Amino acid sequence: MAEVVVVENELAAGALIAASIRDLIAQKPDAVLGLATGSTPLSVYRALAASLVSDPLDVSRVRGFALDEYVGLPAGHPESYRAVITREVVEPLGLTAENIHVPNGDLASIETAGDDYERAIVEAGGVDVQILGIGRTGHLGFNEPGSSFASTTRIKTLTEKTREDNARFFDSPDDVPMHCITQGLGTILRAKHLVLLAFGDAKADAIAAAVEGAVTASQPGSAIQFHPQVTVVVDEAAASKLTNLAYYKHAWAHKPAWQGL
Ligand code: PGA
After folding, report:
1. Mean pLDDT by groups of 10 residues along the chain of 261 residues
2. Residue 260 lies in a domain
């Protein structure tokens, strides 16, 4: 079962997960982080950046793999996930840019980009902790409904709902790319620890389906039920449709201190 942790707000979620990532890096200075984009993980990156200022830790050997990238955006486009990861993660945390990988959405090499990315993750020894958001469609990464639980990094066509959701980052909705390259659900499931974050009412259905719903490719988030170590961090609004919410709170309140996250 996923461990569900209900926090007061995004700041509390950020502090909790940033502390756990710090512990990981302290134990393993070349830890491999799985990096999500979107609004949801920002509180984690900000809390981690702030803690590295107040209590420095050597992060120069930390490695990272982003979940996904748009296909066909011009190099250097400010909304490419390469640019977002540089702006929101690499620079504020002071990571070594060459250690941070993003799937290559360049059309010229798109046919081999998925396999190349899978190889790079394997060569790095796999992802230690994978940060995840979830879309209103239930997607993890850009694995839209119907994605195979065994899928690896490949090209996907975005749903119109996801393109609408992401239009806020572009000048016009038509500018949101139609295609993306995303780690597959099978890739994500190979990470050692999954941390799925969600905040607000709009995510309540997707969280309930992921944590408690039927395991089905129609709800890509439900893939987490196959994974042995999942931490779901939600606010009350995103948790509001969970049937067993009282039990999750009870379990968290009585969690043995030695267990960690
Ligand atoms: P969001 O996106 O964090 O911007 O809500 C999550 C997602 O689409 O996976």
Report:
1. 95 98 98 97 98 97 98 94 98 98 96 98 98 96 97 97 95 96 98 98 98 98 98 98 98 93 89
2. no
Q: Both tokens of residue 24?
A: 């990981």
Q: How remote is the CA of residue 238 from the centroid of ligand 1, in Å?
A: 13
- End-to-end CA, the chain: 14
Indicate the number of domains in the chain.
Answer: 1
pTM of the entire predicted model: 0.97
Q: Is residue 100 part of a domain?
A: yes
Residue 133 belongs to a domain with what CATH number?
3.40.50.1360
3-state secondary structure of 132: strand
User: In this structure, is residue 116 part of a structural domain?
Assistant: yes
To test the ligand 1 pocket, which listed residue (10, 39, 144) has its Cβ within 8 A of the most ligand atoms?
Answer: 39
Domain span at residue 166 reads 3-254
* Buried/exposed 31-48: b ≥16 CB within 10 Å, e otherwise: bbbbbbbbebbbbbbbbb
